[in-house]
Amino acid sequence: MSNSDRIELSIDPGTWDPLDKDMISIDLIDFHSKEEPYRDRIDFYQRSTGLSDAVQIGRGQQNGIPVAIGIMDFQFLGGSMGSVVGEKITRLIEYATNRSLPVILLCVLLEEHACKKEV
User: Fold this and answer.
1) Which of 70, 76, 77, 97 is 20–30 Å from 108 (CA)?
2) Predicted confidence pLDDT, tens digits, the chain (119 residues)
3) DSSP character for 55?
4) What is the value of pTM for the model shown?
5) Which phi and psi angles does 25 have, rounded to 5°?
């Protein structure tokens, strides 16, 4: 199930209004790993998922009640919590707090990515 599907199932139709959708991950500390460079990994996941980061945040309504909602996507680098993810979650909570809104935060591990024992 995609994040768009989760959003559609979690809030009233037509009420989704994304927040900070233009925030994207960058490699501020020039992170190096034994695998491919972090920047290349981010670019790959942005292209393959169509998402800018591992979390989408926004506002909507659930049964007519205004809510702030964030949805982590495991398909984006395993839901890795880089600086942008942390910032978006912080902004979502601050947004909700300033408006006295409930916060819904969904973190979903996709079944096909769950740890499986090799047979």
Assistant:
1) 97
2) 777 888 889 999 999 999 998 877 665 555 666 667 777 777 777 787 777 787 889 999 999 999 999 988 777 666 566 678 889 999 999 999 999 999 999 887 665 544 444 43
3) E
4) 0.76
5) -75, 140
Give the separation between CA 96 and CA 98, rounded to whole angstroms. 6
Pairing state of beta strands 65-73 and 103-108? parallel
Contact 58, 11 (CB under 8 A): no
Q: Which residue pairs, CB below 8 angstroms and at least 24 apart, start in 92-96? A: 92/19, 92/57, 92/68, 93/68, 95/19, 95/59, 95/68, 96/67, 96/68
Burial letters 59-77, b for 16+ CB under 10 A, else e? bbbeeeeebbbbbbbbbbb
CA atoms within 13 A on the CB side of 106: 22
